[in-house]
Request: fold
Amino acid sequence: MTDTTRIVLAGRPTGEPTHDDFRTETVALPEPRDGEVLLKTRYLSLDPYMRGRMNDAKSYAAQVEIGDPMVGGTVSEVLESRADGFAPGDVVLGYAGWQTHSVEKAAGLFKLDQKQPLSTALGVLGMPGFTAYAGLLILGKPQPGETVVVAAATGPVGSAVGQIARIKGARAVGIAGGPEKVAYLKELGFDAAVDHRADDFVAQLEAATPDGIDVYFENVGGKVWDAVLPRMNEFGRVPVCGLVSGYNATALPEGPNRVPALMGAVLQKSLTLRGFIQREFADQMPQFRREMSQWIEEGKVQYREDITDGLENAVDAFIGMLRGANFGKVVIKVAE
Amino acid sequence: MTDTTRIVLAGRPTGEPTHDDFRTETVALPEPRDGEVLLKTRYLSLDPYMRGRMNDAKSYAAQVEIGDPMVGGTVSEVLESRADGFAPGDVVLGYAGWQTHSVEKAAGLFKLDQKQPLSTALGVLGMPGFTAYAGLLILGKPQPGETVVVAAATGPVGSAVGQIARIKGARAVGIAGGPEKVAYLKELGFDAAVDHRADDFVAQLEAATPDGIDVYFENVGGKVWDAVLPRMNEFGRVPVCGLVSGYNATALPEGPNRVPALMGAVLQKSLTLRGFIQREFADQMPQFRREMSQWIEEGKVQYREDITDGLENAVDAFIGMLRGANFGKVVIKVAE
Reply:
């Protein structure tokens, strides 16, 4: 019998989550049955979408119930196996959530065999990287010479979007908060970088996009989107991947109601806005892993991780991420 | 030397246009040169997009300058020809605008040879019908059994959208203003019809779309769009063709600002919003004319025209159209 220590949802947050919305508990796991494995979590991914799962509202995926463990992608090690093809010591990508151990059906696991560090299976080589790849290439369709703008650009999705855009011959403009992140975007090879916290953010964006914007990869919403919209070119594409600036909002912002202006721009510029979740494009995943691995090896894609030790620090890391305090992909190192 | 009587833009309207924004004048036309023809206007099309051309603002097409004739599609008869292939008596589709005569390059004209009345070249067989066809089929992509909703549904675009949706096996729901128009939609074979002027409009829409909405063909914006959005299904498509409810607006509506709610719905439901103007799909025009002609002959597509006699009544007809006072495609019969 193995115990798991896990962080469960204790209450539904109003606005920014607090420690009161979470509870840590230790419970006994069942023994693995046929087709199942017992896992020890090594890395847990923290991602903005998890904030939506905490709401009691129809979101783009099932909500987490009160008392249930918080969900999340994980890299785990097999401790015991009752499933063909899985042996103790194997490392797998799964969805065990915020806990130290789990029993899972082997059918839902992906055996990892990669040159890059294991944590990248949750970042540049995992869901965030694939979100960038699929959203940009399938929906954004950047053409050589076009301008691609992405916000939250030092995050795992945004940094991949910009670097893939450059691989495809487009001009990449990143938006991030603060001079340190802006400097990092230039290190990554972005053609221009803009600080959304600067007083002259709108002027910076204009200067960085002299030919307008052909693809805006939407991660944040809010004031960034308001500044981007007037710069969109005719036939521009806007893959809508996330809206993190509003995830903690408790009410709609004050007026005026800008929906008619938004719809007017969509009409006048023949824009395409397209919401998506990466699983829609799951059939592209093998190709993504091949291409992204190669780009990393060739130095064409760099990545940055923001790794915190210990599951007990997950709540603080999560709250910080929603504030933009992280710098790179947020990963919790749960165990060696 | 031939004179033309024409209606020119006298001022840029604030809100709803008035007679003061137009001026009628009679001027001498130049003689046609090589490659040109002298035309007598028989029918003039009035369409909501013309309101946008009256503004001093970047719209989706060039604005009309003060003192210039109002633009518009026309069916005309050739009076004199200095162009190969055009002879007096020929009837052509052109873009002569709000005037009784014009001299035009023959290269921009389309010789009409159709079984249906000439006025239909401005409606069901013309730009509005093609807008419906291309927007619905190329962008909306209705599948058999899906629900297609269209507003301004008795208008030339909306009525074609609903009928083409039914031809493709989808369920067609029309939104229109007033019981007479709602009754007409049922005559046209719409599966359901909803009155946006009714107090229980939102409840009517819910009842009419028990399986949600897969395609919303956007002609109007405003409160209709607000009511439609919560009914959109996952992967729904929204071709954005017009926003007539806002064309006379002088300011954005009061708050709250609903943009975050709109973007949230786009994200959560993987919606596609796509603005368009029919000319993007001009290569489909020949196929449209073949198919639409056949559908009309087979009785699968019906149409309704709202024809007013005399160019001198164009301003009143135009103002009324923007209020939704027309019933069917608005056409001015300029001459026999």
